[in-house]
Amino acid sequence: MGFFINPYFFIRRGLYKGIEKNANALSGTLLDFGCGSKPYRKLFNVNEYVGLDIKESGNHKTNKEVDVYYDGITIPFDSHVFDSIFSSEVFEHVFNLDEVMKEINRVCKMEGKLLITVPFVWDEHEIPYDFGRYTSYGIKHVLEKNGFEVLNLEKSTTFVQTIFQLWNSYLFQNVLSNKILKAIFTPILLPPFTLLGIILNVILPKNKDLYHNNIVLAQKVNDIS
């Protein structure tokens, strides 16, 4: 059913597959930084899963599953506590990313793993707490200067998939502008474009210069002050 009616089919499938592919690299005690409702919790086989989030954000969903709240500056844990850290679609909402990365480095054990996803192409969301987009080179630079070595970096969608996802998103958010229109026309209007995007992605040359998300697995190699 997700194939037929989900207006965010390409971006969500790309994220899920990318996280699932790298989830086994994380073990031990895991910190989910910016956990929200912990949508990917079931993908991880770890000893302990701790969800951390900030109290005030642009995400007003009520189904959050937060274990610990923090002030946006200091992560309230001792140094070298976590074997693994996971963060999905959070860094674009962090204005002081270098400060936060120092805290992530501090609470991560040496040689601990970090798995993140961060968007390159997407519309503004969780307004006004939307501060940045990252190329693959940009996020690699951020991680390396904050004590992490990138082990694997993948782009979640191709050029063709990204175009069709943006078109479906535009239709869903702007043409189907109210709940009644969405309920009636989403299953009718969007699936043909999704199917066309899948077919053209197979037929046309592959290009990933335009894509939705970076999915990055890194390892802590240095403590930083």
Automatic annotation (TrEMBL):
Keywords on record: Membrane, Transmembrane, Transmembrane helix
Residues spanning the signal sequence: none
Single Gene Ontology MF annotation: S-adenosylmethionine-dependent methyltransferase activity
Name of this chain's protein: Conserved domain protein
Domain of life according to the entry: Bacteria
Presence of keyword Transmembrane helix: yes
Pfam families in the cross-refs: Methyltransf_11
Domain Methyltransferase type: from-to ranges: 31-116
Organism: Nonlabens marinus S1-08
